């Protein structure tokens, strides 16, 4: 598994280097409704910026969904703990005799 991670990192690094070398022209960044313009940014920085924004958004979505799963897991664990304590308290009670002969008591 460790070698797979190293290989994936090497491929990703080579991919980033190829993009950076082949996209060195400068461009102007302007977000139309906003009055700001950034001049002279290399194209590869915009590509990497888009990649990292996408990774960050995916990370935020994954973290927020894990909060929901953690909360439901805590509720289920609390319910299991309560049921186990109830079962333990019921098993410690003495058994009462019943008048119904069909019900046999277990010893």
UniProtKB/TrEMBL annotation:
Keywords: Cell membrane, Membrane, Transmembrane, Transmembrane helix. Residues 23-87 form the Lipopolysaccharide assembly protein A domain. Residues 94-107 have a biased composition (Basic and acidic residues). Residues 88-107 are annotated as: Disordered. It holds the Pfam family LapA_dom. GO terms for cellular component: plasma membrane. InterPro entries: LapA_dom. It comes from Emcibacter nanhaiensis. The chain crosses the membrane at residues 44-64. It comes from the Bacteria. This is LapA family protein.
């Amino acid at each position: 598994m460790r070698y797979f991670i190293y290989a994936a990192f090497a491929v990703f690094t080579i991919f980033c280097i190829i993009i950076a070398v082949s996209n060195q022209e400068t461009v102007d960044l302007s977000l139309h409704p906003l009055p700001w313009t950034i001049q002279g940014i290399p194209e590869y920085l915009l590509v990497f910026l888009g990649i990292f924004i996408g990774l960050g958004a995916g990370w935020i979505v994954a973290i927020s969904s894990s909060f929901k799963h953690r909360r439901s897991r805590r509720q289920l664990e609390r319910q299991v703990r309560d049921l186990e304590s109830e079962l333990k308290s019921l098993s410690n009670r003495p058994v009462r005799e019943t008048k119904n002969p069909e019900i046999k008591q277990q010893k």
